[in-house]
Design a protein that fits this description.
The complex is a heterotrimer of chains A (about 300), B (about 300) and C (about 425). Chain A is about 75% helix and about 0% strand. Chain A has twelve helices and two strands. Chain A has a two-stranded antiparallel ribbon. The longest helix of chain A is centred in the N-terminal third of the chain and has 29 residues, at about 1-30. The termini of chain A are far apart. Chain C is α/β, with parallel strands linked by helices and about 425 residues long. Helices cover about 40% and strands about 15% of the residues of chain C. Chain C is elongated. The chains are: A mainly alpha (about 300), B mainly alpha (about 300), C alpha/beta (about 425). Chains in contact: A-B, A-C, B-C.
Chain lengths: ~300, ~300, ~425
């Protein structure tokens, strides 16, 4: 029972990491509280659902599609909203409200278009891809079904999302620390004003980061029908709170921090479910507050100077 | 000081009187009651955000604490309503005291932590293990003290008290000190203002306001689930109404509630599907084009808004 | 002689005056006020109920109105319905609006205990009788409140009795001793869990609970919980949650390759179409559930039969976003009760309507089942037998009723293959 809980926590924690990655980027770069993060995740989930039910497209190829679509959505959306916002007296606070409004608009449109019923995608879809990958790696034929890890069996979808999350973290890390654009992005993260003074086109950098953030949210959304049971237009709110907990526990700006945050969150949640199941939902909030009060820059330490 | 008296006469008295008299011409008293609650909550947000710049995204935590404090007194000790209100308000104050360490955090962090705190309180109250104390997720049902008329009168009293507090803040040195803290904490400190103490007082006042609102709400509704009195919607509405009207003024939040909540009820009844859409778009537009609220518009036209 | 004529004329005059007054009393319309949730967490149980009620209203109006005995004629029904968006505070204001502004003649609740709960004190305070459609919270029905009765579902504290009876009676011969129960902690499923526990303990057999946990209603992650249940080695697993919980739970079983010998869930029975859409038929095979009136052809003594109703529903709402299921029957059933009550009530006064509704107890049989109220208005009838899902060769879901024995039409398959 203990082994299972631990492994489940690790695997599921990886999914939480994926959820938090996009938010981390957006918050770190722009100090914007994207309260609509969960709703973009929801949109990604529905994209995967509709592509599957209408065109029988497997979720795996949907992943890059979702990423690109929302990258393209995020870029102009940034220009539409943020520069105005930053001119106001209290942009951080107002961003709360603004993105909340956006979240309501997205939810309302989704409800009008698709109704409120739950939707899901059969787990076997991801299972096939995982089986193929595992067969390739191990050289043996692995069947579509639950995956065996250290003798405990887990849904294939969890493994798939874990892999995707790992890739996501590496990609973001590589972007931030190994590319010129990422270098500039980190400059903006540390101090926006100084970046402007250095001649960096802060708006363009931020818009790209925003697009990435939404793209990552959508990618996490593609896995949602498998990991969150079912999807509905109203699922965003809960996801947003969870993502905040994850990125705060880790540390702002650094994708490795989000990785750590996701794992810590995942493992603690699973343990709570095992031993104190009715209190499980209390945990994220307590963790969040505890981290904020005891180690406000997150478990990995300060990566960005606070405004 | 005479501005204080002026505002009491021109704002507090008419507003309270209006809500006291309206039930005789408009029988949906519950709707009027909700208007009162939102005006009170918006003013509470006004006190903490307008005057000190901290956005209490978990404001509903105090509301719920007040509601549960009231309800538990009635349920377990069969307390008379007015005593229960005192206890409920104290519960909100106690919660505020517990959360004061959050002030170490800045801006968005504070708001997120405050939100997490409110959600944590909800989880604790709604937990089935505490069923014997809080009735857990099965909700509260107060049959003994059901008295909507008296509860409405109590709400009027809370409204008057709240407006009084805000008018006081608007025209007192204390209020000015708070605004100084909001503009620039460091300079305010250097000017001799005890930043920490003033902020805590404002925080407690704001929590008290929400707590009182929660008590009368519990009294009026008498049947509710934990999610009802800890619903994020109260926070959101209060913040949006306050911002729309304009914070750091007395009139702003009142205007915001009357206009936006009025629209909410009108639209909500006639075109419900598009309701969430319209409301969301309104909020986005508000932040983008009128971030300082309606009163900033009035100020631009040269009207001095109290 | 003139005296007699004068007397006759006076009587005729009096009669005509009273007659005119009597005829003038009959209202032009019967206003029926109700709420529904088009969005939010209760929309999926609210919209089908609302649509069912609407169907009944349209049917009656097509016939010229509903027959009201108080005025001895058919009067058309005007529906006044507001959207509460699953928000309880909004619902409360809207209930009040219906009563104080719209001055409705009949007050019908929204679906589910949460949205009904706010209406209970309001209806009581305004002395309006509340037709509670599917709000099964047992706290609603108290001796000091005459203004409520439950229409279409059995009250939560009684509903799971067939399940407990099946386990303690037939379960013995199947070898069921160790029971695991996982439930979402809310008024609906939490109360059912308490009832199951109570009934099983009261039966005094050697059935024991090896796992008994309550989890928050918004739980979507069941992997660890399922693993822990498995570790307890149960003979039977009972999962009591709302539809999203059931979907996530069964999904998790599928994905994790876990199979329990006996699994009971509520919503495969209550919202079959929804679960089928989300899970497909294979994961639902051999699951035990409540067999609702949308699956059993009851013999009603009033109103349409299930088959006809389903045809009418499909004609009207085919291809829409609202699934046919138990809740659609529940809404229509409310209409039937109202119709029968109006046909016997002496006036439209609220307590008189109440008397009429209670008079139907034990006598009215609709496509939903037998209508039976206790003294406080809680529904004791409309009970749902226990059945097992069986998927035929064409991939269609059928229900094999296994308990109570007098309605059973098959034997349970145990353990689950």
């Amino acid at each position: 029972m203990l082994t299972y809980t631990l492994l489940a926590g690790l695997l599921f924690g990886l999914y939480f990491t994926l959820i938090g990655l996009g938010l981390n980027l957006v918050f770190g770069v722009m100090r914007i509280v994207n309260l609509a993060h969960g709703d973009f995740l929801m949109l990604g989930a529905f994209l995967a659902f509709w592509l599957f039910s209408l065109f029988a497209i497997n979720p795996i190829p949907t992943i890059p599609v979702a990423f690109i679509v929302f990258l393209l959505v995020g870029f102009p959306l940034y220009y539409l909203i943020v520069p105005r916002l930053l001119r106001a007296k209290d942009p951080e606070m107002l961003s709360f409200i603004l993105f909340f409004g956006l979240s309501q608009v997205i939810q309302a449109l989704a409800t009008i278009l698709w109704g409120t019923s739950e939707r899901s995608i059969p787990g076997g879809q991801l299972g096939r891809a995982v089986a193929a990958i595992l067969s390739f790696i191990t050289g043996r034929t692995v069947e579509n079904g639950p995956v065996d890890i250290f003798g405990q069996s887990f849904p294939a979808a969890w493994v798939a999302s874990g892999i995707a999350s790992g890739i996501g973290v590496l990609l973001v890390y590589w972007y931030l620390y190994r590319t010129k654009l990422g270098y500039l992005t980190r400059a903006v993260m540390v101090s926006r004003d100084e970046a402007i003074a250095s001649g960096i086109d802060v708006d363009r950098i931020s818009a790209i980061a925003f697009g990435f953030g939404l793209g990552l949210a959508a990618v996490a959304g593609v896995f949602a029908p498998f990991l969150l049971g079912s999807i509905t237009p109203a699922m965003g709110a809960e996801v947003t709170i969870t993502s905040f907990a994850v990125i705060v526990i880790g540390s702002l700006g650094n994708p490795l921090g989000t990785l750590l945050g996701g794992l810590v969150y995942g493992i603690s949640y699973m343990f709570m479910q095992s031993y104190y199941s009715s209190w499980a939902n209390l945990l994220p909030y307590l963790l969040l507050i505890a981290v904020l009060l005891l180690r406000p820059s997150g478990l990995l330490g300060r990566q960005t100077r606070r405004a | 000081m005479h501005k204080f008296g002026r505002d009491v006469f021109l704002i507090l008295v008419p507003v309270v009187a209006a809500f006291a008299l309206l039930p005789s011409v408009y029988s949906n008293q519950l709707l009027l009651f909700n208007f009162i609650i939102f005006i009170v909550l918006a003013q509470g947000v006004n006190v903490i955000y307008g005057f000190t710049g901290y956005l209490p995204f978990g404001y509903v935590g105090f509301f719920g604490a007040g509601a549960y404090g009231f309800s538990l007194m009635v349920l377990h000790l069969q307390a008379p309503p007015f005593l229960a209100i005192v206890v409920g308000a104290s519960a909100a104050l106690a919660l505020a005291l517990v959360l004061t360490p959050l002030f170490r955090l800045s801006g968005a962090y504070f708001s997120i932590a405050n939100l997490a705190a409110a959600l944590a309180v909800l989880q604790i109250v709604a937990n089935p293990n505490l069923e014997d104390y809080t009735r857990g997720p099965y909700g509260i049902s107060l049959s003994g003290v059901f008295n909507p008329r008296l509860a409405y009168a109590a709400a009027l009293a809370v409204l008057a008290a709240t407006l009084f507090i805000v008018i006081f803040l608007r025209h007192s040195k204390f209020g000015l000190a708070l605004q100084a803290i909001r503009e620039d904490t460091i300079s305010a400190g250097m000017a001799g203002i005890n930043v920490v103490r003033e902020r805590v007082i404002a925080w407690l006042l704001s929590a008290l306001i929400a707590g009182l609102a929660g008590c009368v709400f519990a009294w009026y509704a008498s049947v509710f689930y934990p999610e009802t009195v800890f619903s994020g919607e109260f926070t959101i509405f209060a913040i949006v109404f306050a911002l729309f009207g304009g914070t750091a003024t007395v009139v702003g939040p009142i205007l915001g509630v009357v206009i936006l909540y009025g629209i909410y009820n009108a639209v909500g009844i006639s075109t419900p599907q598009y309701f969430q859409l319209i409301y969301g778009a309104l909020i986005v537009g508000l932040v983008l084009f009128l971030p300082n609220g309606l009163v900033s518009l009035l100020r631009r036209w040269g009207i001095d808004v109290p | 002689m003139f005296g007699k004529v004068r007397l006759g004329l006076s009587i005729a005059l009096l009669v005509s005056i009273f007659g005119a007054a009597y005829a003038a009393e009959a209202p032009k319309e019967i206003k029926l006020g109700t709420l529904y949730a088009s969005s939010g967490r209760f929309a999926s149980i609210s919209m089908p109920v609302h649509y069912g009620l609407k169907l009944w209203i349209e049917q009656k109006n097509a016939e010229g109105g509903v027959f009201v005995k108080a005025f001895n004629k058919k009067i058309p029904i005007t529906l006044v319905a507001y959207d509460d968006q699953s928000n309880t505070a909004t619902a409360a204001t809207l209930f009040n609006q219906l009563i104080t502004q719209d001055k409705v003649d009949l007050l019908v609740s929204d679906s589910g205990s949460v949205l009904t709960s706010v209406g209970v004190p309001i209806a009581r305070d305004n002395k309006m009788f509340l037709f509670d459609q599917t709000g099964t919270g047992s706290a609603f029905f108290t001796p000091d409140n005459p203004y409520i009765a439950l229409m279409s579902d059995p009250v939560s504290s009684v509903w799971p009795k067939p399940l407990a009876d099946f386990i303690t009676h037939d379960g013995k011969s199947l070898g069921i001793k160790r029971v695991a129960m996982l439930y979402s902690t809310n008024d609906f499923t939490g109360t059912q869990a308490t009832a199951v526990r109570k009934f099983i303990k009261e039966a005094g057999t050697d059935v024991e609970f090896v796992y008994d946990q309550g989890i928050p209603t918004d739980t979507t992650n069941y992997a660890v919980l399922i693993n822990n249940i498995r570790a307890a080695n149960p003979d039977a697993v009972i999962h009591l949650g709302y539809a999203p919980n059931d979907i996530a739970f069964i999904h998790s079983l599928e994905d994790g390759g876990v199979n329990f010998k006996f699994l009971f869930c509520i919503y495969p029975g209550l919202e079959t179409e929804l679960l089928e859409k989300n899970l497909g038929v294979k994961p639902l095979n051999y699951i035990f559930t409540y067999v609702t009136s949308s699956e059993i052809e009851y013999e009603p003594n009033f109103g349409m039969k299930l088959k006809e109703y389903k045809e009418l529903w499909n004609k009207k709402y085919a291809g829409g976003n609202v699934e046919f299921g138990f809740n659609s029957v529940a809404g229509y059933n409310t209409g039937l009760v109202i119709e029968k009550a109006l046909s016997v009530a002496e006036s439209l006064e609220q307590l008189e309507i109440r008397k009429a509704v209670f008079s139907l107890s034990g006598k009215l049989k609709t496509l939903d089942g037998t209508f039976e109220l206790d003294a406080n208005g809680a529904q004791l009838g409309m009970s749902t037998p226990i059945g097992q899902i069986s998927v035929d060769d064409h991939g269609h879901i059928k229900f094999v009723t296994v308990w109570p024995h007098d309605v059973a039409n098959g034997k349970p398959v145990y353990p689950r293959p």
